[in-house]
Write a structure and sequence with these properties.
By secondary structure, the protein is an alpha+beta fold. Helix content is about 40%, strand content about 15%. The strands form three sheets. Strands 5, 6, 7, 8, 9, 10, 11, 12 and 13 form a nine-stranded mixed sheet that branches. About 10% of the residues have low confidence.
Length: about 400
């Protein structure tokens, strides 16, 4: 446990003190672009009763949990989107929420991308089928906040989420993080790749896939950034990563088939570039595939996802209760069971709430020692560069 606590401390030190310092970022372009500010004490913090009844609160701590639950139960439903059951253990997260509160969940487009999540808020505005909340990559969260897609909300445990992992206005907050890894089917890959350069070997022809397209998927964008780090680029320069995939496609190694649990189980994607928690989950879910996982030693990239509440959520109370559940100790440990590093890891460790058995199931902290993390401006720039160059160079 001490190793993992040290690992987490180093992670946040890099974000907050290194070149991708969140504090520095807030003073520069993103502050100007998204208007991030610290909410003052004058902000409305309490739920109020109006002509239409009780208004959802700005802060979870401002209302008794029993009242939040009661109002959510009156709505009786929660709409989620793009949450694969085997991604970060969302299957257990959703089933446990429903069992605990008696609120059914409709999870649409489970294999959808971050871009599709934000688009659903726009296209389904005013529709009862609209998502009540989203789980998106950080650059997509910044874009969604700038578009006014999200409601302000401060979960009760907001103060225990690392400063570098949340919007101080309460428009979004990080839920878990991981590192880009290489997963492989040992039945079809006898000599597992250990580095990005290994993926160029002729023996991997027609075998290398990613989780979606980097034009729409945050996990794929992150894969390109990681490949850039492993090929002479950096979090500031993803050009080498794009060129790497262009070469990989030209050689016939890269296949434009997005990885899903189905493609892993069937052997359609023998090698998959994806978050470590997804690849690690496959090792348990598909034992027949003999799925293995490695963190490429020549380019380790870490990133986190962010939660946000739809500003026009059809079930605003259930949306907030869902957030309270995910960011409670119980919800965070469910994320840990899915091989992620939950955002409140340090707080849970400090209070000795982390099961030792779950910590042992994670890869050794040393594998993450070289992890690099892009600032929000760098992620935004990477998205733009990929959008510009990927179609012509990779397709």
């Amino acid at each position: 446990m001490e190793d993992y606590e040290a690992q987490e401390q180093e992670f946040w030190r890099k974000l907050e003190e290194g070149e991708m310092s969140r504090s520095q970022m807030l003073k520069r372009s993103v502050a100007a672009a998204t208007g991030l500010t610290v909410l003052g004490s004058s902000g409305a913090a309490f739920a109020s009763r109006g002509a239409a009844g009780l208004t959802p609160p700005l802060k979870g701590s401002s209302i008794p949990i029993k009242e939040l639950v009661a109002e959510a139960k009156k709505e009786g439903k929660l709409n989620t989107i793009a949450l694969p059951p085997d991604w970060a253990n969302y299957g257990e997260m959703m089933s446990t929420f429903t069992k605990k509160y008696g609120i059914g969940i409709t999870n649409t487009n489970p294999d959808g991308s971050s871009a599709e999540e934000n688009q659903a808020i726009v296209s389904l505005k005013g529709d009862s089928r609209a998502p009540d909340g989203v789980d998106v990559g950080v650059s997509f969260a910044v874009a969604g906040a700038a578009q006014g897609l999200y409601a302000k909300y401060f979960v009760s445990t907001f103060s225990t989420i690392p400063r570098a992992m949340k919007d101080t206005r309460g428009l979004w907050w990080g839920d878990y993080w991981g590192a880009i890894s290489i997963g492989y089917n040992a039945n079809l890959v006898s000599n597992p790749p250990k580095t990005w350069k290994d993926l160029l070997k002729p023996e991997y022809k027609g075998k290398v896939a990613m989780n979606g397209s980097p034009l729409t998927s945050n996990s794929a964008v992150s894969g390109v950034i990681a490949a850039s780090i492993g090929n002479g680029g950096s979090t500031k320069d993803v050009g080498p990563g794009i060129d790497f995939f262009a070469t990989l496609k030209k050689s016939g190694n890269y296949i434009p088939v997005g990885t899903t649990p189905q493609t892993v189980a069937s052997g359609q994607t023998p090698i998959s570039i994806d978050w470590d928690y997804n690849n690690l989950a496959y090792t348990k879910e598909f034992p027949a595939a003999k799925w293995g996982v490695t963190i490429p030693s020549d380019g380790v990239y870490g990133g986190y996802y962010a939660q946000a509440v739809n500003a026009t959520a059809p079930h605003p109370w259930a949306a907030r209760l869902w957030q309270e559940f995910m960011f409670s100790d119980q919800g965070q440990i469910i994320f840990l069971k899915g091989f992620t590093h939950p955002s409140r890891f340090n707080d849970l460790a400090k209070r000795k709430k982390l099961p030792a058995s779950l910590l042992k199931a994670l890869p050794a902290p040393a594998l993450y020692a070289k992890a690099q993390f892009a600032s929000i401006p760098q992620q935004t720039a990477a998205k733009a560069k990929i959008a510009s160059d990927w179609p012509s160079k990779v397709g």
